[in-house]
Amino acid sequence: MWIQPDEMIDRVTRAVMARLPVPATPRRLTVPIGVSVRHIHLCRAHVTTLFGEGHELRVFNELYQTGHYAAQEQLMVVGPRHAIERVRVLGPPRAYSQVELARTDAVAVGLDLPLATEGRDPESRAVTLVGPEGTVRLPGGSEGGAFIARRHVHLGVDDAAALGVAAGDLLDLEIGGPRPTTLHGVLVRVQAGWRPEVHLDTDEANACGVRTGQTATLIVPSGEGADHG
Ligand SMILES: [Zn+2]
């Protein structure tokens, strides 16, 4: 059968391409670690109750994620056994309030807290907040409460795509330094505009000997993220 020269070139090109190794998807990413000290997120109504009518949260320092900040405002977190004073509020205000504690804090205040990703988790617990102008009782469950934050990584849409992962995937984190460790089950969270950053709480960070700003290597374990293309 007669083959047109153009078609021949096309066939040869495709045959050569098929034999070239497929470029491997990058499966590792160097990311900074942010250590989350116990903190509180508040809805606007609770800012008013705790700090007074017309009060606006004031910036204490900017956080790594654009637009987020540690506020000057602090509150007392009261549990059944104990209270912790001067717990930092993070801004801006959110749709609902939540308290994020390390397990060590939870034991101190007398709360058996679940590992969760948000304060509206059905397992989150009731807790009381005391401010200079008032007191708020977070009911827990779907209305917001206290929990221990699951270790997670913030990724922008492009970073997640480049790594071949999606929200909800669980990755590994290889940490160097004086207490080298690999953490598993680092939950992927994805939002447009986020900068890559792993969040660990103080218990995890202290156990691994890491501080805010230190970098570590995010690794996609085999079998994770494979079906996201
Ligand atoms: Zn986070």
Automatic annotation (TrEMBL):
Q: Which cofactor does this sequence's record say it needs?
A: Zn(2+)
- Do you know which Pfam families this protein is assigned to? PTAC
Entry protein name: Phosphate propanoyltransferase
Q: Name one GO biological process term.
A: 1,2-propanediol catabolic process
- Quote the EC number: 2.3.1.222
Query: What keyword terms does UniProt attach to this protein?
Result: Acyltransferase, Bacterial microcompartment, Metal-binding, Transferase, Zinc
Top enzyme class of this protein? transferase
Q: Name one GO molecular function term.
A: metal ion binding
Q: Which InterPro entries match?
A: PTAC (IPR008300)
| GO cellular component term, pick one | bacterial microcompartment
Q: Domain of life here? A: Bacteria
Family the UniProt entry places it in: Belongs to the PduL family.
- Localization in the cell: Bacterial microcompartment
Metabolic or biological pathway, per its Swiss-Prot or TrEMBL entry: Polyol metabolism; 1,2-propanediol degradation
